[in-house]
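Write out a sequence, fold above all:
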Amino acid sequence: MERVIEKKTRNGKTKPLIRVGDILIEAGLVTRKQVEEALHEQRTGKRKRIGLILIERGVITEDQLLEALAQKFGL
């Protein structure tokens, strides 16, 4: 996942402008279709966060989501 984040930064000087779904896709943890379905549920449902939707669907684990978020925010 680190390589995904590095690839999305500009010259290593700015914070990454990447969404969690994109991180998970590029890391090979989910498919674009799974993210799109989760986003659809997010828009039509109770506006849950995409990570929670993917966990509830059994697509990813909480640990995988936390790792993606940690990478996104440089923790």
In short: The radius of gyration is 12 Å.
